[in-house]
Design goal:
- This is Metallo-beta-lactamase domain-containing protein.
- It comes from Herpetosiphon aurantiacus (strain ATCC 23779 / DSM 785 / 114-95).
- One of its GO terms (molecular function) is N-acylphosphatidylethanolamine-specific phospholipase D activity.
- This protein has a single domain, classed as Ribonuclease Z/Hydroxyacylglutathione hydrolase-like (Metallo-beta-lactamase, Chain A).
- Helix content is 19%, strand content 19%.
- The strands form 3 sheets. The protein has a 7-stranded mixed β-sheet. A 7-stranded mixed β-sheet has the order 9-10-11-12-13-14-15, covered by helices on one side.
- α5 packs parallel to α6 and α6 packs across α7.
Length: 336
């Protein structure tokens, strides 16, 4: 078996000592930097909720009954999802941190505690990790999950972080773009697919890969998105793996200063259509402020755009389990 470093060096997406996007990404321009700094200090956007957000988790016992449709998803804020699919329970990009930073006590602060405490989680069969940014890969949460025995599926190179934090190498599966992992014990196949983003913790950039996921059972498939800018790759993924019963897509934390690596809400909706998704769950919001827009601007823009789209948009409260085929009791709760 080739070592991690050998696999990285052999990757067609690793050039000039770093991983590369499929398409060039827009760089921060000087005028964008000036505008960003001005809005940072003088902008009047409401970047955090003025009161605690509603939470609708029904409790751990609820998850003892499998979803009637075979698919149920519980959004825990930002990009952390509890997905019950084809008889197993997946946890995506698990982040319970109060602050997003390499140093405890500083950095962007969570709006409120997660709707489910780590100790209250139902049994997790599999953890999916898209990339190594602090808002997607939380050291303390990973160390807590290290107590279990579930496998971790992640992008090429990220396993080095996991091993350092206590995850045995035998539990780690690292994939390059378009590689597939067959998990016979779960009856699932997981494919790593491209995203238009970047990686890095601290000053070191792009030494590890970033990836979105296609999770396939015998009868259904879902798309679990990584942070990404809009790119033609969504069409390629849709043609190769679609249609999808559900696509989770980031549509927040965008800014004019980094247009190539995060999507505007309207672009996220377009990506769902390119993927051939029936239903979209918007993520990357509701927990942290990482940009300069109002905290609820993305969901308002997305729903406005969705009026002319065939895509069904899920808007669950934090902790509210929902089956995409039965999206009843969904409200515009952020307006309350």
């Amino acid at each position: 078996m080739r070592s991690r470093q050998q696999r990285i060096l052999a990757s067609p997406y690793y050039r000039n000592n770093q991983f590369q996007n499929l398409y060039p990404t827009a760089m921060l321009q000087a005028n964008s930097m000036v505008s960003t700094l001005r809005r940072q200090f003088f902008g009047k956007e409401q970047r955090r909720p003025t009161k605690p957000l509603p939470s609708a988790w029904p409790g751990q016992r609820f998850h003892q009954t499998p979803p009637a449709s075979g698919l149920r998803v519980t959004w825990l804020g930002h990009s952390t999802l509890l997905i019950e699919f084809a008889g197993i329970t997946l946890l995506t990009d698990p982040v319970w941190a109060k602050h997003l930073s390499p140093v405890q006590g500083i950095g962007p602060q969570r709006f409120q505690t997660a709707p489910i405490a780590l100790e209250q989680l139902p049994a997790i069969d599999l953890v999916l990790l898209s990339h190594d940014h602090y808002d997607h890969l939380d050291k303390q949460t990973i160390r807590w999950l290290a107590r279990g025995s579930m496998p971790f599926v992640t992008a090429l190179g990220v396993g080095e972080h996991l091993e350092r934090w206590g995850i045995a190498s035998s539990r780690i599966h690292e994939l390059d773009w378009w590689e597939e992992l067959h998990l016979a014990e779960f009856g699932l196949t997981i494919a790593a697919v491209p995203a238009q983003h970047f990686s890095g913790r601290g000053l070191k950039r792009n030494s590890t890969l970033w990836a979105s996921w296609v999770v396939m059972s015998q009868n259904s498939r879902i798309y679990v998105g990584c942070d990404s800018g809009m790119f033609a790759g969504f069409n390629d993924i849709g043609q190769r793996y679609g249609p999808f019963e559900l696509a989770t897509l980031e549509m927040a934390q965008y800014d004019i200063a980094w247009p190539g690596v995060h999507m505007q809400p309207e672009e996220a909706l377009q990506a769902a259509e390119m993927l051939q998704a029936r239903t979209m769950l918007p993520v990357h919001w509701g927990a942290y402020c990482l940009s300069l827009h109002a905290w609820d601007e993305p969901i308002e823009r997305l729903l406005k755009a969705a009026h002319a789209s065939p895509i069904s948009i899920l808007t669950p409260q934090l902790g509210q389990p929902v089956e995409p085929s039965q999206p009843e009791h969904l409200t515009e709760w952020w307006r309350d």
